Amino acid sequence: MIIKSEAKRLMIYFFYDADGIVDKYVEFFLDDVKKSVSEIIVVCNGKLTEDGNKILSKYGDVIVRENKGFDVWAYKEALMSKGWDQLNEYDEVILANSTIMGPIYSFSETFEKMDKKDLDFWGITLYFEYEGDPFGYSPYGYLPDHIQSHWIACRRSLVSSKEFQNYWEEMPMIENYEQAVGKHESIFTKKFADLGFKWDISVEMEDLRQFSGYPLMMCPKLLLAEKRCPIFKKRSFFHMHSDLLRNTTGEPTREMFDFIDQGTEYDTDLIWQTVIRGVNQYDLFRTLGLMYTLPTHLLDKELLKENLQSKQVALVMHIYFTDLLEESYHSVSAMPTQSDIYLTTDTAEKKKAIEERFADFPCNKLEVRLIENRGRDVSALLVGVKDIIMNYDLVCFVHDKKTAQVKPGTVGASFGYKCFENTLSNEDFVGNVINTFFANEHLGMLSPPEPNHAEFYPTMGLEWGPNFDVTKELAEDLGISVPMSAGCPPLAPLGTMFWFRPCAMKSLFEQDWNYSDFPEEPNEIDGTLLHAIERIYPFVVQDAGYYPGILMSDKFAAIEYNNLKFYIRGISQYFSYNGIGPYYEDSLNWLGMMLSHKGIIRAAIKMKIKQFLKRVLPKRFHKPLKQQWRKMKG
């Protein structure tokens, strides 16, 4: 135990950020830590901005090193640079890193609790024993109980030991995350416990052993609310969805965030700042549940009245098809009468027809603008109204829609229905959208869900289509630096209808687009600049410090749920009837194996060939497979 009232403590704090930016959550963390430690050394892997260096230097010496060896070698370099003689002067040496956020409760509480215990080392949270060795590096053949390496406090009795010093001096280079866990984190605790050193953790978790192997990830709210755990993982906002669904229904991060926001004094702006900047938008969407399903009846009339008095709201609609003019009028009628309405079209004749139909439309202001027929609805927004768009706090952008390239016509009409129902369902729904934006200051954009009916079915899973490279190139031209991955779908308005804060789109409008920037008609149905812009919108918003989300009316949410349930039931039944499962990824792995030529043969070998053909493969595969089978037997 530590008896001294003024214990001498050193914290070695490992920091990494791909852009070298130090977010405010790091400052908050270190501001609290420095109340309980004597000295801080910050070790940064990779680059560090000038501002970041100034921030971290406030807390102690800063070592900026090559980005290799992960946190393990960062700790090693700091330990070696200090030297064992000097390290032995400290009562505790704490190895911590920037993968944890907090504290929700001051670390002084944790230190006070652990100072009373007779230990050689301790941590905050535990990862429970895991059968088997998923990383292939454990000398034990399994992952034993271990203190999670984001915080390990080592007392003088351990630091001064030859075993501890040899451990670090002989530490091999760490080449990847799997080695960081397999060669250090998962074995550190058992290695030194087996040598007779005593250890413990500050958060009492033994009662959770049968509940979760990884409580800090799978039930973080429970740890924060009931165990007074002072920390939470930044990884909560991008942890693998497959692992979450193996252990939960996907609720842990949202439940944790709501507790932090409503039940603690921790400033959630510290979370938003770092996750919006550094986490893929789809990961934020799924972990935080950024799906806004709003009622088609108004929830708070007085709040809407206040918002419309203090905020400027507008609708921009591009009208191309005069035979849809009545439908367009109906959609625009969902906007509050306090709104400004801008309607764009491409010919003088259409402009006249629109002005006649909207002559007595009830609104604050209505203007019909004539634009060039180049760039379609995209240029209508980026060129046609660029002079006024920044005058507004919130804008809805829509356009009439036929999707004439698909047959029968009901397919395209239903796509249009999905877009309009989830942007301008009715006046009450629009009121709820307006209130939602002004109640969530970090919300920058809301779009309807992607189409998934008829031939649009593959869109869910192939949201990028052939447009990733052209969108990535556009992002580079715009200087957008937030994460963008071909493996993560954009939260994009694939029908180009959405609500947005103009201030979140400022950088896009500042490009000063002209009609000549867009391809002439006739246009390709995919893979063009227009489709890249359609997908870049949410990244522009995120780069500005806001998050995009998905918007549905309660009426359409019921339709969408039933559609998705129909799809999933069919897939699940197919796999179940063929003995595949029970987990989702088991089915995917099996499918991947089957789609490889050799995999099909291997699967066939495991059962009688006739049974295999009958149960598993469509008839068109039977003949070529039999031919291949004969070749293998020959």
Automatic annotation (TrEMBL):
Q: Which superkingdom does the taxonomy of this entry point to?
A: Bacteria
Name of this protein: Rhamnan synthesis F family protein
Organism, scientific name:
Ohessyouella blattaphilus
